[in-house]
């Protein structure tokens, strides 16, 4: 099972939506976990905007506090539990009328526990039940606990146009699939987010057209496993075999969807996340190579470099197959950037398996990565069948060794841009100085350069003169052709 990147700096961000004058009630919504969760919070805020709620960043004045939660590792759940205690302290001491709701992956995993045993929340809503929130709120108003954690076979929220919370107005996320069928043995997501289903292409294209008309310049197509996207008129991915001949003949896969988006919006830049090696096909790489406006970047989690561990993880590919995929990607798009997710200390992992992971890093030469030590998740196959037998200090040491190798390679990889002129989409002020813009190149590396007369939303050609391990430093040499 794949996940989108979890950005530490964004965890717990509370989000604000422009005010609707007639709305009287105040919603405080906070998100944890992956980009998918952040995108879902935008769907929820959109539903609640029609129920009289404006968002606020002041917790104490909120009528409704929602926390969109993540279950991927134990640490994520611990953080959310602490936040819930905080909300409850505010409710007890400052704002007794405040209602608290749990959304997302923990809602599904812990269900009644929040309501019955711990009595810390008023409402529990799973990832497929957000449209039921208006009804659930009525239950809460009547003094009843409200819960809906039913997972759906169809729900993709295709008919809801999400409001963009704390957006820079330039880059946005658009969900294309929900759920995951891969059943990696370490991963809780198939249980929290259910079976894989794809969203209708028309509604995806409409959402992108709307973003374009509002001035957005970059869209990231989101899903737990985007390469597995398959539209054949609705229904679960696993039921495709049962589809009619007509449905099969007119089906749309990820390569086709990507091709359509890039063709129809030639001046919009496209990214996607996350790719699962076993579902990433050469057609997708070819479509990427064909379109200038599809970024040369693939997040391609590998989890381990050992074929034996990959098998224990149920990853459906060997080390060698992954290497062949990487060879093909570099052959078709030599200038591409790859990033990884890796788990250190999966059950039964030996020193030799760990060495295989280190040597895979050297082989692939990822530009960056997201590395974790194994955290057993209740209900997963690994938790049921395998003992969490790698000692914590060994996990930690292996993780540090992986991070060290990755950081060295990252710096080497980033240096390759020095002397090159790269196309940058300007997003915002640089963190260090308000005299510099910050944006990203096609490979998703952050680039900073003096502002001159450029503005956010411009595509600018920047000549790179220096770098740190994660940031390129340069000077603008003019607009990109994409601006013509
Ligand atoms: N323990 C540690 N890391 C995990 N991930 C998923 N499940 C676990 C777990 N049980 C990591 C994977 C995934 C990323 C989002 O989180 O590397 O790709
Ligand atoms: Fe996203 Fe849920 Fe996975 Fe967390 S557990 S990363 S919120 S899908």
Automatic annotation (TrEMBL):
Presence of keyword S-adenosyl-L-methionine: yes
Span of domain MTTase N-terminal: 25-142
Q: Does the keyword Magnesium apply?
A: no
Q: Read off the SUPFAM superfamilies from this record.
A: Radical SAM enzymes
Q: Which SMART domains match?
A: Elp3
**What residues bind [4Fe-4S] cluster 2, as annotated?**
180, 184, 187
User: Chief location of this protein?
Assistant: cytoplasm
Q: Which UniProt keywords apply?
A: 4Fe-4S, Cytoplasm, Iron, Iron-sulfur, Metal-binding, S-adenosyl-L-methionine, Transferase, tRNA processing
**The protein, known as:** tRNA-2-methylthio-N(6)-dimethylallyladenosine synthase
Species name for this entry? Flavobacterium terrigena
